[in-house]
Amino acid sequence: MNQTSRDGFSSRFGIFAAVIGSAIGLGNIWRFPYMVGENGGAAFLIVYCAFVLIIGIPAMLSEFIIGRRGQGNSYRSFKQLAPQKPWYWIGLVGIFAAFIILTFYSVITGWTLEYVAIALKDVFSSSTVVQDPAQVFEHFHTQALKPLIWQIVTMLISAIVIMLGVRKGIESSAKILMPLLFICLAILAVKTLTLPGSVEGLRFLFSPDFSKINSGVILKALGQAVFSLSVGMGCLITYGSYIRKDVNMSRTAFSVAIADLLIAVLAGIVIFPALFSFGMAPEQGPGLVFVVFPGIFQQMIGGVYFALLFFMLVAIAGITSIISLLEVIVVYFVEEFKLKRVFATLVAATLACGLGAFSTLSFGPLKHVKIFNQSIFDNSDFLASNILLPLGAFFVVVFLGWFYDINQIKDELGNQGTLKMRLFPVFMFIIRYVAPIAILLVFLKGLNIF
């Protein structure tokens, strides 16, 4: 499929906003803060930043190259680049990973929409009857019907965007949602920095205690870097296929990585000063967003407004991620099964909702169903995060570093010789030696092999 016959991004800002929308999701707003809290604060942050720059950018570039060179979905791009070899299965792994992540990301994002509705009802205002946030969350997410409805609403919103296409849907929505996300973060950061005792939260986030760094912290930081940048799930290959040939992909990848770090740090500035101001420990785990922060908003002057802003922020982050995940599956259906985009979107969204319903219900009616002593939701998360993503990322860099023509890589990165390539040897060294070893260690750690 040639460049002119494919829908694609129309502007450099559109590319940036769309890729940022994929990279900056629940991984930054929901997962990153509690990872920082559980793993030593500033020390974890420094290691994480280093991995994003050293390994994350080359891995992201690897997927961009495969997508733009292959001009197809994750599966088809590998077929184009290696027609005589079965490397296409890596593309299928990415598509399957995107589908599995979609099934449980839509659960969490649905929760955030419920909390936007709760905030609108003034539940988190100090002027109303105070409710126990833990009980509110427990009552909501263990129900059968309401979480399912919000999951369907989440998928419906994302599906409408995908149906509109790359430029009119994905790019246009990203141009609106990503600046809005940044504005929400900035307002919340200013608010939390004015809270009494907030300086202790900043000290936790920015004053490192390097004695807290061990092999476990290092591998978790590396895993978070790979997860946060959407490596290994087909999103970057798919979006790479929409990038015009005259766009500097290296600059795009670097800009996205810096924005990813900035958003993650801003999320930390929002969360940790608030935690310390209200005397709460930073090691709060996954319940941080839905239990701890509602309790903070109840005690905060104007808490209802900041609660609404906060949960809108988390909802936007979730929806932008879901849009990119859904696009991976939809474009595969369109190109390989010749389905119309609207019908392909309905099929993909319905399948994801159908399987995702089991994850939603695993907190309520299906909570007693255990696979390997874990809930359906936890199994989906483990399969995607600990197996599919690191496997996909590992074989992407191995393929590009060892089995693809280096001159083709240089041609793609250099935009057919129009860009200078001073760091090209460094890039090749990382994707050949550093990235595969690091990602393999994350994979083995995720399986508790060491």
3D structure, described in words:
The protein is mainly alpha-helical and 450 residues long. 74% of the residues lie in helices and 0% in strands. The chain has 18 helices and no strands. It has helices at residues 12-23, 26-38, 42-70, 74-81, 88-120, 133-141, 145-163, 166-193, 198-206, 215-228, 235-240, 249-277, 292-299, 303-337, 341-361, 376-403, 406-413, 424-446. Helix 1 (12-23) packs across helix 12, helix 5 (88-120) crosses helix 7 and helix 8 runs parallel beside helix 12 (249-277).
What's the short story on this structure?
The chain is built from 18 helices and no strands. The protein is mainly α and about 450 residues long.
In what range is the share of β-strand residues?
under 5%
Q: Rg from C-alpha positions?
A: 21 Å
Helix content: over 70%
Q: Would you tell me the structural class of the helices and strands?
A: mainly alpha
Unreliable parts: none
What sequence of helices (H) and strands (E) makes up the elements? HHHHHHHHHHHHHHHHHH
Q: Average pLDDT across residues?
A: 88
Architecture blueprint of SSEs:
Layout: H1 12-23, H2 26-38, H3 42-70, H4 74-81, H5 88-120, H6 133-141, H7 145-163, H8 166-193, H9 198-206, H10 215-228, H11 235-240, H12 249-277, H13 292-299, H14 303-337, H15 341-361, H16 376-403, H17 406-413, H18 424-446
